[in-house]
Each structure stands twice: as C-alpha cells, then as structure tokens.
Design brief:
This protein is 8% helix and 29% strand. The chain is mostly beta strands. The strands form two sheets. A six-stranded antiparallel sheet has the order 1-9-3-4-5-6, with no helix packed on it. The radius of gyration is 15 Å and the shape is globular. The two termini are 25 Å apart.
Length: 119
C-alpha cells in the first residue's frame, strides 16, 4: 500500500474504498485511518467511516454534501482539501493528511502468530 500526501494526490477524486490517514485525538487515537464510502442515507454522496482504533466500524463519521462529489460518486480531492477543517478535523490541516487507494488483499499483513486461512 502506498501513501501519498493528500495535497500531492494526482487524481481528481478518491473512490469508495480509498483511505485517508491523519493525526487526531479524542474520540479517536492519536492517528486514525478512515475509508471513503457511500453515504448511509442511500444517496450517492461520499462519506467517511473510521476503520482503525476503538471507533472502527461503529458508524459513518461524516456524510458529505453533494458538492463533495466528483464524477457522480467519488469524493473530490480539491473539495476535501478546501473543506478539511469544516467537515473532517478542525484541529488539523489537510497538508498533514495522507491518502491511499483501496487496499488489496495482499496489502493486509498477518502477524507472526496468525495464519491465513486456506480454502
């Protein structure tokens, strides 16, 4: 998995499954990873869900407005940078955010005591 600073991200949009990582604080850990997903309201608006720490998977963290859409269903990178403090994390800067495309199965590292299940 390759992380790139959000401000240097070469594509116009982040598709569903893309990840963003940033320094946070309460109610999260010091660093958090969120995944771009579809809004739970059933619209095509993009949203974020936490996938790390004790808040992982609980609820959608934020559902963005339709202005955040790019190409109909993706999250517009420029909009996210411009609206970072308002919509995602007011105590942080978009300049300190990292982004990555969706994870592949091969990018998930198992620890030494873990064994991958076989089919």
């Amino acid at each position: 998995m390759m992380w790139v600073k959000l401000i240097d991200f070469e594509r116009r949009s982040l598709r569903r499954g893309s990840l963003i990582k940033f320094h946070a604080g309460y109610p999260f850990e010091d660093e958090v990873v969120m995944m771009v997903c579809s809004s739970p309201e059933g619209s095509l608006n993009p949203a974020l869900i936490t996938i790390t720490g004790h808040k992982a998977g609980i609820n959608c963290y934020v559902a963005f407005p339709s202005e955040a859409q790019c190409e109909g269903v993706f999250l517009d990178v420029k909009w996210l940078i411009d609206n970072w403090a308002k919509w995602v994390w007011p105590e942080g800067s978009a300049e300190d955010v990292w982004a990555s495309g969706p994870m592949s199965v091969d990018s998930i590292v198992l620890g030494p005591s873990s064994q991958a299940p076989t089919n």
